[in-house]
Amino acid sequence: MDNLSPLRHLIQSHPLIDNHAHNLLNRESATDHDNYPLEAISTSAHGRALENALTTLPSLRAISQLSELYGTPCADWNDIKSAHDRSVREDYDGLIRKSLEGTHALLLDDYLSDDEDIEPSTWHDSFTVSATKRIVQVEALAESTILDVSNARKNGESVWNNFRQRFQDALGSALDDPNVVAFKSEVCCRTGLDVYPYSSDDTTLGGSLIRILDSGTTRSGFDVDDKGICDWIVQQTLKAITFKKKAGVVKPLLFHTGLGDKRVNLAKANPACLQPLIAQYADADIVLLHAGYPYTREAGYLASVYPNVYVDLGKVFPMVSREAQVKVLRECLELAPANRLLWSTDGRLHPESFWLANRQFRQALETVLVDYVQHGDFTASQAMKIAADVLFYNSNRLYSLNLTPSYTPAE
């Protein structure tokens, strides 16, 4: 056995904590490819753009690797969908267990859990060692609060004061809920990451809320897409997190950054836009999701100079090419402290999205760390600590999970 075998073994087999993912479809909906296209597991494209995405390197690589998962040769996505449908019909639970193999715990952004096609968070518990924990999306929380305000709207009542109090109460309840370990903001997809550190006056915010109420209905719902309101939601969440941290309760705020669908204004998806906000709320822990791609260096830089910033490495696996995945890891390690790097799949809907992400991440991590050891940048023992921290211990500490992995080192 060469001296790198223990490192390779650890990277490929150490249990992991998936620090950001989404709920799976139920069995009946898992084969509904019209509404939940399986091809989307390797791209953020939708509609006609999804047809073009089938010719990308990530999509072609997914076909090759998923053939291994199903144990049958697949030449294209039609073959993949046939194999998927057969697996769902014959043993959906088995497909999920195989896809989540090695996953100790899931932290689920479960904003779609009210959808009848989606399994609830607790349902996922039977497929992991430890119980699933929840991540609350704050814009979705605001939209449900606005719906409540709309239903309770009365003449002469201050709609803004009503909404503000209800939203702050909802935040407080989530902070007190032991099953909630973090919050997430989608402000990147709504108005951009250039979040102003200070809120507008109540008159301005009240006017913005009225416009949101007037543009939606109780049946269609209300879209929080006003910059003033979106910024305020993020500010209030960070204030509440900071206050609660003084009492010893640590629950970070995760930001969607970089990689996303066509809703994202790419120029405003750069995590560098968050720098004034990060500096203003220095006591609130902040996680930059998706490695900030394609602004990975900026994300790593922020983690290197602000002790409250972490970089999540998810979503680029499996949505960019193999070379790009290796580059992402290298760029993160250029400056970012290894104890500020977290792993997630950003898996959703189909179990294969988890399997591909975990498999490709372990492959890229092995490529990068083995290369650094061979070039003398650090020792194999140091590389093993980095790998175990990224896969498990960094998330375990940040989210105060207090979990213990079951791992047997290579002999």
From TrEMBL:
Residue ranges of every copy of the Amidohydrolase-related domain listed in the record: 252-347
Keywords, in A-Z order: Hydrolase
Domain of life, source organism: Eukaryota
Gene3D superfamilies cross-referenced by the UniProt entry: Metal-dependent hydrolases
Alphabetized InterPro entries for the sequence: Amidohydro-rel, Metal_Hydrolase
Molecular-function annotations in GO: hydrolase activity
PANTHER family documented for this protein: AMIDOHYDROLASE 2 FAMILY PROTEIN, NODULIN 6
Protein name: Amidohydrolase 2
Native source species: Penicillium patulum (Penicillium griseofulvum)
Source species taxonomy: Eukaryota, Fungi, Dikarya, Ascomycota, Pezizomycotina
